[in-house]
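Last lecture ended with a question: if I hand you only a sequence, what can you say about the shape of the protein? Today we answer it with a concrete record. The protein is Cation transporter. Below, first the input exactly as provided, then the predicted structure, then a couple of comments.
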Amino acid sequence: MPVLFLNLGPSAAILNNKKNIILVALIVSVLLMGAKFVAYLITASNFVLTDAAESIVNVVASAFAFYSIYLTSLPRDSNHPYGHGKVEFFSAFIEGALISVAGIGILIKSTYSIFYPNAIHELLTGAIIIGITGVVNGGLGYFMISKGKELRSLTLEADGKHLITDMVTSVGLVIGLTLIHFTGLLWLDSALSIGVGMYIVFNGYQLIRRSVGGLMDEADFEVVNNVIEILDKQRKPEWIDIHNLRAQKYGAELHIDCHLTLPNYFDLIRVHDEVKQVDELINKEARIKTEFFIHTDPCLPYCCHYCSMPDCPIRTEEKRIDIPWTMVNLTRNKKHFEQDV
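The predicted structure:
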């Protein structure tokens, strides 16, 4: 007996919160990009130029992130029955790709500059400007990562990590410009740029890997394990077993379908109530909005040896073992057996 519970997508308050955070990030990115280009005009440093060029990526990425949050806010329709949440994975992919391109560009330009250095000046002034932009990016980045985890938004996390990456670049810039000012070693400008460029490419790869995993419905084991732990700790005797559990993430929402074994003498109203309790338990305890599709199965005689149902009128043998609810046991497409202990 399949039973379907539908939750109506992200709340308006959460979506508005996401939009406001991304909008602030976009405005800040535009202002900081202007500051970095001013620093380049003052110093003529290739290192500063690469950081300023990366800021263009920040602006484009934040703009796309804002658009993706808008798409996420759209209601479900016939073409998108699970909503538009997966656009967040696509947004993170674009951002990761842009970060990687920026990092590769820095590596190429820095390598060239080792062999063909150019004159630079007013380095301390440039370092101060870049340092200020780094502090702003770092604070905003950590805030966005925190809010992204709280709101279960990959877009906010990705944009926050991008800003943290930009902060690291700025730190490298300040160190490099200061060292060059006091040592006169022009090659340090390019050498430090190469190190920062490699770090940027690695961060871009991580974002791309995570977004592709989401687009390919790769299991989020951290989230699924959390759901299973909650079910195991608060399981009722009526819930004889859960199996064939599968989960998909659509942005900030989790979609789960599974089979729930219940006593075969329950009427339809009792079955409905038990399924509803599972749905409400996870939505309350798991800290992620979850849509459940639960198929109910009747118990069979071979379930008795692990069933805890008291005063069961059809029991064929006493309970002998406790079978823990683990990732392995709940994801298999069959009822539990004695070897599942």
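Comments.
1. The first strand starts at residue 2 and ends at 4.
2. The chain has two domains: 9-215, 221-340.
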